[in-house]
Amino acid sequence: MDLGLKNKRALVLGASRGLGAAIAEGLAREGVNVTAAARNRDAIAAWAGKLPEGAGTVTVEPLDLSDLAAIDALADRLLAEGGVDILVNNTGGPPPSTAVDAKRGDWLGNFETMAANIFHLTQRLLPAMRERKWGRVLTVTSSGVEQPIPVLALSNGIRSAIVGWSKTLSSEVARDGVTVNILMPGRIHTQRVVELDTAAAQRAGKPVEDVSAAAAEAIPMGRYGDPEEFANVAVFLASERASYVTGAKIRIDGGATRSV
């Protein structure tokens, strides 16, 4: 299937590792010219250097999502070059915490980086998409927005707010040819999930291998997902072929979420 993505322009946040890197690489393999943004430039350069001949270009952009001035500078540069067709909002997750223990400062600081700043960046880049009558806004959240994950209160709460924003935005820009969707990963085998499993093992006083095995056993597919499996869904939603999908929450979790 021709996804109609060749020579499109994308900005992918958090593109140095995990889901962000997998999405950025998947888009580049389809011929998209990708601006890959993250704090770790070397990590982006490492995967970009392995792309096959004929892939889209990858521009490495150092970016700290807590730095609003840097976000605005990036938006200014991209808009001066014509803007982007595809925006992938992907942020790191906050530290584990219960709802009882999370402090006000934890909520405010993480909300700014994970939510308010990506709302701002999206607002900056949307007008060019609307003017062209084509655009894709994908935001990576978590399966915790549908089935809250214990000890991840900050993530559950902040990402749920992002879902409300995304759904509202989708209705406002749909007639301009811009789709807005949410991607909800379950347990995808990334460094972030390894870190969460390690923290859970330390709390329980168990080997991390036992914690990971138990988590995998609870998934109907019996395993963690691969980042490429997640990225394949993102690339499709970013494509011409997904033109009638908007305002949706898409689960990529091996069936782990129990709600209908």
3D architecture notes:
This protein is an alpha/beta fold and 260 residues long. The chain has two domains: 9-188 and 229-252, 3-Layer(aba) Sandwich (Rossmann fold), CATH 3.40.50; 189-224, no CATH class. It is built from eight helices and seven strands, in the order βαβαβαβαβαβαααβ. It has helices at 18-29, 41-48, 68-80, 104-132, 153-173, 191-204, 208-217, 227-237, and strands at residues 9-13, 33-38, 58-62, 86-89, 135-140, 178-185, 249-252. Strands 3-2-1-4-5-6-7 form a seven-stranded parallel β-sheet, with helices on both faces. β5, α5 and β6 form a beta-alpha-beta unit. α1 (18-29) crosses α8 and α6 packs across α7. The chain is globular and about 55 Å long.
Q: At CATH's second level, what is the architecture of the largest domain?
A: 3-Layer(aba) Sandwich
What is the CATH topology descriptor of the largest domain? Answer: Rossmann fold
Distance between the termini: 30 Å
Strand order of the largest sheet: 3-2-1-4-5-6-7
Segments where pLDDT lies below 50 for 5+ residues?
Answer: none
Mean pLDDT: 96
Secondary-structure element string: EHEHEHEHEHEHHHE
Rg is 18 Å
Please tell me what the overall shape is: globular
Classification by helices and strands: alpha/beta
